[in-house]
């Protein structure tokens, strides 16, 4: 077990493609850090640089107190779970689990004991003599996890490990990974596209954009106080509604709450925070017609075509909306639920 | 699953479409093969006036002839040499290319050229290169104090035909190995490197086993090549000499039949050769293929 320290790391691929630019991140011992961001923002690249599968153009990666820039993947003592699992197809499950231990010259008795233990934890003992092709997707996923944990490495690296599973299995495995990581207390870096996975798994969440870190923090903090428009739009589903203050000001009979900073020219509000009744605090009122209602289990997503505003507003309503599609509706934005941004820098202002 | 199927309203169209292939097979394969089988049971008098049916006499004669045993042994050595050299080199080259496949277009194209060269031309090429009087390679070898003369040394002559035949086959094997390597996902090799395996270990424990279907296929193809198609190369380089040291089975068929005009014996040998190849292929499918599937 070890901390991971990434200092001023850059990655330039051949052809002058800058995938990571000047990135700093400290991951403490035993922590589970989740990397999220749009496709192509450099998540896999960062992970692969930690693993040693990709050279580091500039900067420094430390695992524990050792600089690992020049070390081979084998010498870094990390384990990685790949999106396609990368199980060795010609070896049985047992051989897959043993491979890393054998390469490290672990004594036979210990290999046996560790493989059996890992198989027990992951409930794959029954499959030990099968080949990977004789397993279902979920079982393969477990074997891939098993191959990581038998080695008892300093850190786990996960690159979208659950993205090939169906929604239900993904939910199960997510909980299992969390439990496993809690009990093993192994430092982990986890890349995902899935909001739910990111929010629920992360001790700390890292939002990346175009090779940079936008914001790092506890998932709840990122949700409640997004540091930039990008994070505001990326974290939370459905995404935050963003309005131009200039447009809001022109709506008839509107006075903007005094709590909005003078520098701000954009305000955002989560779909869950929009009210249908007038709140007790200062607010901005909006009017419009219901364009579309999506019932989603216990709640409904309502899309409203607002008078005087181009973009549709999204509202999350608990239960069902009394009004039907096409009916007139009033919405209220409580001042305390507003997020203010400066459009030029894209940053949050208080 | 639904398969695409064409319905021909005209009953004869399929036969017409198949005809060219069937006719070629008939004229150039079935007919000569059946001729060979027939004449392997016959003897012609020296002037070709009379043929008599002699049952298995040609076969017993061939099989008790020490020069046939010699040719069989030569073929074994030759086959082993060519298969090992051509597949070994091809694999080595393919691995090198696989490491840098994007920049390797030109490299790949150049490596494929030898395959387009006719066996006789390949033979002549190597005959020149290794020519004891005018060749470049004996001259270089002499610089290292090694005396090359395949006209005298049977071992050197064998080495020469192995090199010349293998060289031509390397391109073919190379292409298949490159394709095979490309189909092994990079993440397997990466997983292995994280699992603590160095480049050599990765190759032998992960990549090579996954290439085995390709290797198996190439082994069959190469053995067939060695058995039948190597004739032109041998004829152009050593003509089976010195002292029959490079006379392989297929070359002996030619020497006895065309040069020695012993059609009966030559036919019997060609039938035996075909039998040997069928047997080898059968063995390979039976025993090797079982281990290939994963
Ligand atoms: N081998 C490579 N050569 C050149 N450019 C590359 C290479 N690998 C990745 N890139 C580029 O680097 C950038 C980051 O890629 P990366 O795979 O890290 O993205 P990602 O965040 O993992 O995306 P995704 O969520 O789709 O997996 C992309 O613009 C990509 O095109
Ligand atoms: Mg990726």
From TrEMBL, chain A:
Q: What is its main location?
A: membrane
Query: Would the keyword Translocase turn up in this protein's UniProt record?
Result: yes
Q: Which Gene Ontology molecular-function terms are recorded?
A: ABC-type transporter activity; ATP binding; ATP hydrolysis activity
Checking InterPro entries in the record gives:
AAA+_ATPase (IPR003593), ABC_transporter-like_ATP-bd (IPR003439), ABC_transporter-like_CS (IPR017871), ABC_transpr_MalK-like (IPR015855), ABC_transpr_MalK/UgpC-like (IPR047641), Mo/tungstate-bd_C_term_dom (IPR008995), NA-bd_OB-fold (IPR012340), P-loop_NTPase (IPR027417)
Q: What does the entry give for GO biological process?
A: carbohydrate transport; glycerol-3-phosphate transmembrane transport; glycerophosphodiester transmembrane transport
Listed A to Z, the keywords are: ATP-binding, Cell inner membrane, Cell membrane, Membrane, Nucleotide-binding, Sugar transport, Translocase, Transport
Domain ABC transporter: from-to ranges: 4-235
Gene Ontology cellular component? Answer: ATP-binding cassette (ABC) transporter complex, substrate-binding subunit-containing
Q: How does it sit in the membrane?
A: Peripheral membrane protein
Q: Where in the cell is it found?
A: Cell inner membrane
An example Pfam family from this entry, by short name, is TOBE_2
Quote the SMART domains the UniProt record gives.
AAA
PROSITE patterns from the entry? ABC_TRANSPORTER_1, ABC_TRANSPORTER_2
Family that this chain belongs to? Belongs to the ABC transporter superfamily.
State what protein this is by name.
Answer: Sn-glycerol-3-phosphate import ATP-binding protein UgpC
Its taxonomic placement starts with: Bacteria, Pseudomonadati, Pseudomonadota, Alphaproteobacteria, Hyphomicrobiales
Q: Coding gene? A: ugpC
Automatic annotation (TrEMBL), chain B:
Provide this UniProt record's keywords sorted from A to Z: Cell inner membrane, Cell membrane, Membrane, Transmembrane, Transmembrane helix, Transport
Location, primary (coarse class): membrane
Q: Which cellular components does GO assign to this protein?
A: plasma membrane
What parts of the sequence cross the membrane? 12-31, 71-94, 106-128, 203-223, 271-288
**Record-level GO BP terms:** transmembrane transport
- Spell out the Pfam families in the cross-references: BPD_transp_1
Source taxon at top rank: Bacteria
Subcellular localization, per the record? Cell inner membrane; Cell membrane
Give start and end of each ABC transmembrane type-1 domain: 72-284
Membrane topology (UniProt): Multi-pass membrane protein
- According to its UniProt entry, what is the function of this protein? Part of the ABC transporter complex UgpBAEC involved in sn-glycerol-3-phosphate (G3P) import. Probably responsible for the translocation of the substrate across the membrane.
Q: What family does the Swiss-Prot or TrEMBL record give for this protein?
A: Belongs to the binding-protein-dependent transport system permease family.
Please name the PANTHER family in this protein's record. BLL4140 PROTEIN (PTHR43227), SN-GLYCEROL-3-PHOSPHATE TRANSPORT SYSTEM PERMEASE PROTEIN UGPA (PTHR43227:SF9)
Q: Quaternary structure per UniProt?
A: The complex is composed of two ATP-binding proteins (UgpC), two transmembrane proteins (UgpA and UgpE) and a solute-binding protein (UgpB).
The entry's protein name is sn-glycerol-3-phosphate transport system permease protein UgpA
Organism encoding this protein? Devosia pacifica
Quote the gene name from the UniProt entry. Answer: ugpA
